[in-house]
Every structure is written in C-alpha cells, then in structure tokens.
Amino acid sequence: MMSVAVYPGTFDPITNGHMDIILRASRLVDRLIVAVAENTGKEPVFNIDERVALLEAELAALAEPPANVEVRRFGVLLLHFTQAVGAQMIVRGLRAVSDFEYEFQMAGMNAKLDRSIETVFLMASDRYQFISSRFVKAIGELGGDIAHFVGPVVARRLVAHYRENGLVPPPPAT
Ligand code: ADP
Questions:
Q1: Does residue 163 have a pLDDT over 90?
Q2: I need a surface site. Which of 17, 62, 132, 166 has the fewest CB within 10 A?
Q3: If DSSP codes are grouped into helix, strand and coil, which group holds residue 143?
Q4: Average pLDDT over residues 7-20
Q5: Catalytic residue among 24, 73, 95, 125, which?
Q6: Catalytic residue at 133?
Q7: What are the C-alpha distances in Å from 69 to residues 32, 48, 127, 152?
Q8: Please, are residues 6 and 26 in contact by the beta-carbon 8 Å criterion?
Q9: pLDDT at 171 exceeding the cut of 80
Q10: Counting atoms of ligand 1 from 1, which one is nearest the CA of 92?
Q11: What is the DSSP letter of 155?
Q12: Ligand 1: which of 6, 7, 20, 21 to mutate, most ligand atoms within 8 Å of CB?
C-alpha cells in the first residue's frame, strides 16, 4: 500500500522550520500532502492564496525539490481532509515543550475520531528549533533581518508586505 501523509498547518508564512519538516517527512512516505488551513482561528497576515503560493515558491526554489510533495488547501475538519485524500498519517513538527500540550490534545482528539489515522511527530531540528511564523512576523514588522528564518521568496514578500502597509521603519541612521 502507498504511504500517504498530510502535514497540516497555517504556514503564515512558511519558515525554514516548516521546510525542514517537509523535507524530512517526504523521505518517510511515498506521498506527502502539505495542507494549508483556510480557516485558521488566527488572523493570518497572508491570505490562503498567498500562503499556498509562498509554499509552492519555496519548494520550487529548492535545488532538488522533492517529487512526492504536493501543496493543497483545506477548509474542512482536518480528519475529514485526511480521510478524503486517503492518508494514513498526520505529520506535525514539535518544538521544545511549548508545542507539546496543544499537539498532544489535537493528536488525542483526532485519534478518538478515527483510530486508523496516526499522528506522527518529527522533532524540530536544533537549528530550526526556535523559529516560529509568529516571531518572524514580529521581527519583520519592526524592520529586523528575517533572512535567517525564512526562504528568500518569503523574506522578500514579507518585507514588501510591511512596506505596503507602511509598517517597516527606516533603517537606523549610520
Ligand atoms: P498551526 O497553526 O496548525 O500550528 P503552523 O503553521 O504554526 O500551524 O505549524 C504547523 C506545524 O509545524 C506545527 O506542527 C508546528 O508545531 C510545526 N512547526 C512550526 N515551526 C516549526 C519549526 N521551527 N520546526 C519544526 N516544526 C515546526
């Protein structure tokens, strides 16, 4: 049987930490579907079209884009999406202790709803452990250098976004 996994998230925007999980998960399964949530419960900076486009652009920018990864959007219950695409696995990334409680609850609830679908956690790599979309946005908004945390396409788009909205302060005078 072909192994299929779903890696769901808000990806607002996609960071190097997310990309690391995508690449590592893509080596574990035959097919990996990166699923971008339409309804996030958060107020995303980028709308669903932009979040999908940025993810696709970052994948395309890789020297060797993995052939078994596809990007999809979903607006239904994650479990229903996972069942609909025929996946047996939900992949999530786990950073330090802060993610644990939320991820533990989500995995537990999903397991109650459908025992046949396993949630699999990949530990964040040490170099990406501290990266979060939230802080990337906070740093970008204040004119900080985000190039260490996101790919070049996202970095450009994020700076453009903050400029368009008049949010980036001018660089410090030298
Ligand atoms: P969500 O809103 O569903 O938490 P996110 O886009 O914030 O969506 O994250 C998607 C998944 O990626 C989550 O499992 C999150 O823990 C994981 N993740 C986020 N940042 C990193 C990182 N730096 N390293 C590893 N996993 C990460």
A1: no
A2: 166
A3: coil
A4: 97
A5: 95
A6: yes
A7: 5, 18, 23, 20
A8: no
A9: no
A10: 14
A11: H
A12: 21
Q: Is-contact 128 16, C-beta < 8 A?
A: yes
Q: Which ligand 1 atom is at minimum distance from the Cα of 12? A: 6
Tell me the whole-structure pTM to 2 decimals: 0.93
Q: 26, 51, 133, 157: which one is catalytic? A: 133
Other beta carbons within 10 Å of 122: 16
Query: Is residue 167 pLDDT above 80, yes or no?
Result: no
* DSSP alpha helix (H) spans, the chain: 16-26, 48-60, 78-84, 100-113, 133-141, 152-164
Q: Measured from the CB, is residue 9 less than 6 Å from ligand 1?
A: yes
The per-residue pLDDT for range 91-150, each reduced to its tens digit, is 999 998 888 999 999 999 999 999 999 999 999 999 999 999 999 999 998 889 999 999
Indicate if ligand 1 lies below 6 Å from the C-beta of 124.
yes
Atom of ligand 1 nearest to the CA of 133: 7
Whether 42 is catalytic is yes
* Digit-coded pLDDT (tens) for 24-52: 999 999 999 999 999 888 789 999 999 99
Q: Is the CB of 119 under 6 A from ligand 1?
A: no
> Which residue has its alpha carbon closest to ligand 1 atom 25?
124
pLDDT at 174 over 70: no
Short-list 89, 55, 50, CA closest to 69? 55
Question: Tokens 């932009």 appear where?
Answer: 50
